[in-house]
């Protein structure tokens, strides 16, 4: 009797495990925001021009975008690890961004930036040099 119950239970488990699972609804994939590149500071797209906002009371030069999704444009000054002075312009969206800096010899180079504190950014160029920047 126990063998029959065990056999029936086994057959039931095998049958239940062979059932096809109902397909899960496909998740909607939300694409990542496009990464800001240094050359982005050179132009404003027509879409950005529609939301362009300038406020002379703020440190940013201008901003574009919508609520909680703004890109800010800042003029910055700072120095590298050897205390050589640099200045330039960056665009930041959220915590990260990119821009172009000019060193004391007039050389222009691209950097990626990250907020480190209030009005403070850390920048890194393609050669791995780091810079401490402050918004103007």
Characterization of the model:
The chain is an alpha+beta fold and 136 residues long. The chain is 16% helix and 41% strand. The chain has two helices and seven strands. It has helices at residues 2-18, 46-50; strands spanning 62-66, 69-80, 85-93, 96-103, 108-117, 120-125, 130-135. The protein has a six-stranded antiparallel beta barrel. The longest helix is centred in the N-terminal third of the chain and has 17 residues, at 2-18.
Stretches where pLDDT is under 50 for at least 5 consecutive residues are 26-33
Separation of the first and last Cα atoms: 87 Å
Biggest sheet, spatial arrangement of strands: 2-3-4-5-6-7
Counted beta strands: 7
Structural class estimated from helices and strands? alpha+beta
Give the biggest sheet: 6 strands, antiparallel, barrel
Radius of gyration computed on alpha carbons? 27 Å
Mean pLDDT: 79
Short recap of the structure:
With 136 residues, the protein is of the alpha+beta class.
Chart the SSEs and their pairings.
Blueprint: H1 2-18, H2 46-50, E1 62-66, E2 69-80, E3 85-93, E4 96-103, E5 108-117, E6 120-125, E7 130-135
Antiparallel strand pairs: 1-2, 2-3, 2-7, 3-4, 4-5, 5-6, 6-7
Keywords:
single chain; alpha+beta; 2 helices; 6-stranded antiparallel barrel; 136 residues; 41% strand
């Amino acid at each position: 009797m126990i063998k029959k119950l065990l056999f029936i239970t086994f057959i039931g488990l095998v049958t239940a495990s062979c059932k096809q699972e109902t397909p899960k609804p496909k998740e909607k994939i939300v694409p990542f925001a496009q990464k800001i590149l240094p050359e982005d500071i050179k132009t404003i797209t027509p879409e950005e021009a529609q939301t362009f906002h300038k406020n002379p009371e703020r440190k940013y030069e201008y901003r574009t975008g919508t609520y909680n999704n703004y890109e800010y444009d800042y003029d910055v000054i700072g120095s590298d690890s050897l205390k050589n002075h640099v200045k330039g312009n960056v665009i930041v969206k959220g915590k990260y961004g990119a821009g172009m800096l000019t060193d004391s010899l007039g050389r222009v180079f691209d950097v990626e930036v990250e907020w480190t504190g209030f009005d403070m950014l850390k920048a890194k160029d393609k050669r791995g040099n780091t810079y401490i920047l402050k918004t103007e």
